[in-house]
Amino acid sequence: MVTACRVRSLLKRRAPVRSEHSQQRPDGSALATRGNLMIVITGTIGVAADSLGAALSAIATLEARTREEDGCLEYGFWQSPNEPTLLAVVERWRDADSLDAHMASAHMAEFLTTVGPMVTSSALDRHDVSATTKLM
Questions:
Q1: What is the residue-level pLDDT of the chain in tens, covering all 136 positions?
Q2: Sequence-separated (6 or more) residues with CB below 8 Å from residue 72
Q3: Which of 49, 84, 89, 104 is packed most tightly, with the most Cβ within 10 A?
Q4: Strand 38-47's sheet: what is its strand order?
């Protein structure tokens, strides 16, 4: 079982690195307004097979609410076609403050309380990103 406290501690393990370089989205608009690096979260979570339907329903609600948050650039969970109980996670945040606000949100607390007991494994990494180049 993954607790809300454990997830928060994993994501805050490293303090955000400050950068004076401006960051921009592909359309040229600024990513960071205070010099913070963009934060990217990637990884996987495993969910108990008998809880998968309930977890996916809770994830759909979380995704919709999170995508409305200030500073959320991308947020999603994707189900593996070969391992249906394994979900890939990708998040992009404008800066560390945006991620911190998300982690403190009521909908995130509700999600962690609801889905935490259903989680069988988790491997999430935080990336502090100074630049992004469009690949395709």
A1: 555 455 555 444 444 433 334 455 555 555 444 456 999 999 999 999 999 999 999 999 999 999 999 999 999 999 999 999 999 999 999 999 999 999 999 999 999 999 999 999 999 999 999 888 888 8
A2: 66, 91, 92, 93, 94, 98, 102
A3: 89
A4: 72-79, 86-93, 38-47, 119-129
Long-range contacts of 46-50 (CB under 8 A, 24+ apart): 46/85, 46/86, 46/87, 46/119, 46/120, 46/121, 46/122, 47/85, 47/86, 47/87, 47/115, 47/118, 47/119, 47/120, 48/85, 48/118, 48/119, 48/120, 49/84, 49/85
Q: How far is the C-alpha of 18 from the C-alpha of 31, rounded, in Å?
A: 13
CA gap 84, 45 in Å, rounded: 11
Q: Tokens 């995130």: give the residue.
A: 108
Q: Calculate Rg over the CA atoms of the chain.
A: 15
Q: Specify the 3-state DSSP secondary structure of 111.
A: helix
Side-chain half-sphere CA neighbours of 80 within 13 A? 13
Helix axes 106-115, 52-66, angle to 10 degrees: 170
